[in-house]
Amino acid sequence: MKPPPGLKLIDENGRRMDGRRPDELRKITMKAGVLKRADGSCYLEWGNNKVIAGVYGPREVHPRHDQDATQAIVRCRYSMSPFSVDDRKRPGPDRRSQEISKLLGEALSPVVLRQMFPRTAIDVFCEILEAEAGTRCAALTAASVALADAGIPMKGMVASVAAGKIDNTVVLDLRKEEDNFGDTDLPVAIIPKTGEIVLLQMDGHFTDDEFDVAMQYSIDACHQIHGMQKQALREKYLDAAVEKRMSEPAESEVML
Ligand code: CDP
Predict the structure, then answer these.
(1) What pTM did the predictor assign?
(2) Looking at the domain assignment, is residue 145 inside a domain?
(3) Which atom from ligand 1 is nearest to the alpha carbon of 179?
(4) Are 158 and 104 in contact (CB under 8 A)?
(5) Residue 184 lies in a domain
(6) SS (H, E, C) 93-106
(7) Are the CB atoms for 166 and 182 separated by under 8 Å?
(8) Which residue ranges of the chain lie beneath pLDDT 70?
(9) pLDDT tens profile 58-74
């Protein structure tokens, strides 16, 4: 869709609407271990996206005929809150959320060491509280931290981001107007530890050269995001260690 008259997605200096350079990410913050009843969880803010991911399992599979006798199954549910977008979203699953749930499950399954937990399910819930483009990538990034927080053995975490094209310029991490009025959207997810690609979708067109630039931007950004994921997990365990130390009696008290 063409932008409305007067809306400039990128200026003559190559700066985007929010002042970002083409290869710059929006601000990302994440916190691991935010849900008490989940085995693992993560709250993530990415630009104006707000996402919470909760992991439950490995646990018994219901319905039983979904069980795999050789390995765990990874089930994902991506869900957008009715209040997460400008027009109220009808609650419950729709085609889009079913598609995103499926691809999140397919992206996370190869990283989990599923053979360690035969006949079980690992359930991953991603709730979008506020959406402003890039929610599937944000959900995948948060889900991965939640899985690690749950102590699920994995061969690495998954980091994800989208690249795209606006006004003939390849850019990283589209915001809402860039997604709506831009020409191309390319969500990518990789396992930074191994370099494997676990998600690659494309809406629109790229030339071969543009595709290479978009992939390079995305891969570099995924490594950056992976650093943030590891930091969120480190912070949780540092906080827990400090809390434990505070709750233990000081050495002098023990001696008394
Ligand atoms: O969120 P993501 O970019 O992964 O998926 P999309 O289908 O390309 O949606 C782009 C954006 O459109 C979402 O992030 C929302 O901000 C918005 N959207 C909406 O306003 N209402 C919907 N029912 C679905 C999406």
Answers:
(1) 0.94
(2) yes
(3) 10
(4) no
(5) yes
(6) CCHHHHHHHHHHHH
(7) yes
(8) 250-256
(9) 999 999 999 999 999 99
CA of 212 to the centre of ligand 1 (A): 25
Domain that holds residue 213: 28-251
Pair 111, 154: CB distance under 8 Å: yes
CATH code of residue 145: 3.30.230.70
Q: Is the CB of 50 under 6 A from ligand 1?
A: no
Both tokens assigned to 235: 């912070």
User: Does residue 87 fall inside a structural domain?
Assistant: yes
Q: What is the domain count for the chain?
A: 1
131 lines ligand 1 (CB under 6 A): yes
Contact in structure between 38 and 142 (CB atoms under 8 Å)? no
Strand segments, DSSP code E, in 115-224 are: 120-130, 159-166, 169-172, 184-191, 196-200
Strands 159-166 vs 196-200: parallel, antiparallel or unpaired = unpaired
Determine, yes or no, domain membership for 239. yes
